[in-house]
Design goal:
This protein has about 150 residues and is of the alpha+beta class. About 40% of the residues lie in helices and about 10% in strands. It contains six helices and five strands. The chain has helices at about 5-20, 30-35, 50-65, 80-85, 110-115, 120-125; strands at about 75, 100-105, 125-130, 135-140, 150. Helix 1 crosses helix 3. The chain starts with a helix and ends with a strand.
Length: about 150
């Protein structure tokens, strides 16, 4: 059947149920997990409603990828101070708005999977930094970069 936004959301809900009932370890993130990823451990009360909606949307799209095994988010929402420390040349980073997540992938398996499943990125509305430049993580974001390329250079 053709995949629409509604079937992706339904697939995401099905995967979440399968994971909770022992149907296999899938990469499923929650907003609370993304708030705790990285150096700054955010509380929901510290984050504005727009950023929380961005995080919810990011979870929905990343979860819809359907990748297994489960992975860990190494960085997501960042403060401006964190961003200046991590990458001072990217002060417009999607991480500042809850629109990007870095998924730890030191073995490179997830990066290879993403590269070979570009159609899933398109279906889920995700863009990815070129894994050639991010050796130990995969950066996913919900907005297109200036280049509009599905895989873009950081």
């Amino acid at each position: 059947r053709p995949r629409t936004r509604h079937t992706i959301v339904a697939d995401c809900a099905t995967r979440r149920r399968a994971t909770r009932t022992g149907g296999g370890a899938k990469m499923i993130f929650t907003t609370d997990e993304l708030l705790k990823a990285g150096n700054h451990k955010w509380k929901k009360s510290e984050v504005d409603s727009v950023t929380l909606r961005n995080l919810d949307e990011l979870c929905r799209r990343v979860n819809a990828l359907g990748y297994s095994p489960a992975m860990r988010a190494s960085s997501c929402l960042r403060s401006l101070a964190d961003q200046k420390r991590i990458n001072p040349s990217a002060l417009g980073s999607s991480h500042l708005y809850g629109c990007a997540v870095d998924v730890a992938g030191p073995t490179g398996d997830f990066a290879r999977w993403v590269r070979s499943h570009t159609s899933r990125l398109v279906e889920c509305g995700l863009w990815c930094e070129n894994p050639q430049y991010t050796k130990s993580w995969v950066h996913l974001q919900i907005y297109a970069p200036k280049s509009m390329n599905r895989f873009f250079n950081p």
